[in-house]
Specification:
By secondary structure, this protein is α/β, with parallel strands linked by helices. It contains 34 helices and 17 strands. 43% of the residues are buried.
Amino acid sequence: MADRALQILQNVFGYDEFRSYQQAIIHNVLNHNDTLAVMPTGGGKSVCYQIPALIFPGLTLVISPLISLMEDQVSQLKALGVQAALLNSTLTRAEYQNTLSMISSGTIKLLYMAPETLMLDRTRDLLTSLRVDCLTIDEAHCISEWGHDFRPEYRQLAEVRKTFPEAVCIALTATATPRVQQDIKNILMIAGPNEFIASFDRTNLFLQVSEKKNPVAQTLGLIDRFKNRSGIIYCNSRKQVDELTQILNENGCSVASYHAGLSNEIRKANQAAFIRDDIQVIVATIAFGMGINKSNVRFVLHYDMPQNIESYYQQIGRAGRDGLSAHCQFLFSYGDIQKVKFFISQKVASEQRVANLHLNALIGFAETEMCRRVPLLHYFGEKYSAEKCNLCDNCLSEDRPLIDVTVPAQKFLSCMYRTGQMFGSAHVIDILRGSKSKKVIEKRHDQLSTYGIGSELSKSQWIQLSRSLIQKGLIVQDQEFGSLKLTHVARSVLKGEQQVEIRLAEKRDIPEKASANKQSDLDYNRELFEHLRACRKSLADRENVPPYVVFSDKALVEMSAYFPQSQESLLQINGVGSVKLDRYGDAFLQVITDFCQAHQIAEIVRHSPTSTTLNSPRTTGERANRAKPRHVVVGEKFCQGQSLEAIQSEFNLKFNTLLSHLHKYQMEEGRLPKSDAFLLKSKLSPELLKRVVQAFRENGAERLRPVFKVFQEAVSYDELHLIRLHYLVHHGA
């Protein structure tokens, strides 16, 4: 079955090899072992159940809380030729009945639904009459009360398992702390050895936390930095979403809003416009999940503060799902902390303590002076061992001077000691700054020697210092009551034996060069990339699907780097499988070959990590790859005396692709035989033909553009390509 899984990965999904943990997870599921898979957003979780679904003879159920995400995944599977369907209340009566008919007949391999739909008696009655081989629970963190997005209806899935005792269960999530992971396993009865916890580190995301000074200007600057690229902006209220959307529209930005207060029609229309690249930016509420699988989001901006690290991590996870670089900026202010605390205060008392712990962890992440990946990954139980990630603002801002704050630190620690280590930082800071608050006066803390001695720092600077002291291990915070306690390390600071330095100065914006603005580490042609984007958009609009369903940005970047000019070469691009090759290959090859002819660019041979041979499962029929590159095979056929027409027919090539192969053979492999075959294909007059040959003699035959300009663009590139080959075979390279 392992070979079958790899064949499906290559033929259907268009990837040469599995990514981290994918193969092990798939193998575990195929062996009918219940499995927990924790993988970062964009890490390829879907493949872990989609490939087994195509191998299992029966049905695979996929439970997800977000209708829009399910719709998106079903669209992508259909584009790959996979029979998948969605069962929910948004379907018309006719669509619903048609879906039921396809399910009953065994046509559907993957069936997506929300947990509420699965709980309906009619749904259970239908499914119990069918063979269900796999139960997939997506967003599995929703099952845990310790998760950031607990949903009571998810708890009922434990009972559903009893309805399908023969089905293997796979639970997947991108945001689960160790405690949440254990919760999922306990509730779904997943044995310990069957868990796969991938790294939470998204190495293609640049992390930046900026002081929220002029948020509108900061937002406009980020949008301008990523012109014509997709981005998501998160706000924490509907009112803020609407106000910011209006301001951005007035400033000429391509933007729409998305929140629960909009009608279903407007919300769906705005989301569709975003995922289809009809608008550049979507402004959304933090609380209302978008549930999209758009792969080419190049930036995420937190205009307002999320409530916890899980939410932050999940939301930045919507950027760079194609593996290319993306930018995540968080506008941080102490005023926003109070807004989040207000939201928390609206929760029931039993939930407030957990929410405050989550908030404090987020604030610690925002205020840290170390590499941002250290506290972020630590929160999820992972240790970041690298000294610097060079993909966050802190790692690229170490030129900011450290400030000696030993004296203010001693004042803070001393004030804590004198108040009996029974209060939180807010009260200690009030004492240091000489506040006449009711609490300070009632506790007679205005009589302390530390009262009013902290005027050298602003309140926000004292807050930053207090959190730095926690991070440095000088003080700890009681998890239940919030009071601060001195640690043994604090003694050396109070005695003056240890210095305390922090970067207290206002943070500067990161250098423009560090913005993760690049699309890829590959050296690719930006102009060709834009042509391919236009081609993708045209095909997507024609088929009524999002552009990334056709091909991801990553695939277009690779095409723009390697310039594939044959079907075999195009198959080597990540994300190009046989189904998509048949459906879209000709259109993209036409764009690439036209561009390469116009700019005299040769195809770059890509060395795939898995060698492709005559028996490769990625190829079928006459397209079987050979050990020799295609241009060599074509050149040898021509040298053996085969006509241009015969070679073109045998390999099903466009004529300009055939000429590109022959030119490459002439320049790299050896001499083509003297022949008038190219001359006979030309439609130029004898006089003009002589002038073109003379132009090649004078300007050289390495590039077509100089000769194209000589004739003031009156002779087409197709003709120039023919005459150049005629010139080369008769007069030498």
